[in-house]
From TrEMBL:
GO terms for molecular function: oxidoreductase activity. The lineage of its organism: Bacteria, Bacillati, Bacillota, Bacilli, Bacillales. This is PBS lyase. It comes from the Bacteria. PANTHER family: DEOXYHYPUSINE HYDROXYLASE, PBS LYASE HEAT-LIKE PROTEIN. InterPro entries: ARM-like, ARM-type_fold. Transmembrane segments: none annotated.
Amino acid sequence: MDEKELLKLIEKMADRSSYTSSEDSPSWNAYRKAREITGTSVIPSLNNLLEKSKDREIRDGIYFILGKIGENTGDERVVEILLKWLEKETDKYTLSSVLERISEQKIVKECSTILKFIKDERWLVRQDAIRALKVCKSSIAEEALIKIISETTDEYDLIYANSVLFEIGTYKAIPHLLNLLDHPKGDVKCSALSALNEIGDASLLPTFLEALQDRSGAVKGYAMLGINRHGNETAIKPVIERIKNMLKRKRNVVSDDIILALGFLIRFEEGNEEIHKLFDWIKTKKWDFLFESEKKWITANITKFQLEPYSTNGAG
């Protein structure tokens, strides 16, 4: 593909008047073709087009193709070009586009250019810069994220920083993530628990058990993920109580919480009377309080439900 063909493809991508979700749309087809490009020989031509073009939508298309080539091939020249132009661009939407393309790469060895934008006054740029740090698997990137979650008051900055720490964080981040469990916003606490679950170990079980008492159902769900991964016998009673509280009444929202909790308990069911009593209670009293997906899972995974009849009258 020569430079003229590239420009023609990019112009089709930029033609918003023709863009629909239909596969017959010229713009949609152009994006599909761009996603599949693996020929690295076009990289110099794309850089040359960036030197020539001032149109924002054309530049966004060039960055899109560069990002996909880098994602598809791992060619390090893509990162070099994206970082070079990241320092030159000024429009917030274009900066956001470049940062998003950077975040699609396999790894970025030198992150100093990205770090310049994590305090940008424009939230769009700042938060895309935070997310781009996930490809900067370095202590410098982690320290920058720790500084963000220790100092910022912006809940979305916190959520994005936590999500990146989930991917690149180490034990160093744990104390700072723990501090966020007192945050008033549930989404911040959920993202912190998710990162702690990934970074931490069984020593954090008391933290997950405490979070299981939070008023937010979403926070309880993330706490249960941590318990399921890092829990031991000491978590049995709190998990049983969680199941009982969930089944006090019929629920309107489907979630994996019951299945996750039961999946944890069946690891310890042998010889445990409390767990067997819970299973009996679910069978005889709460079967009709379960969603169909939960019934199928229970029937397939818990022996007691396979061997013995159970009530379906839902009597309290």
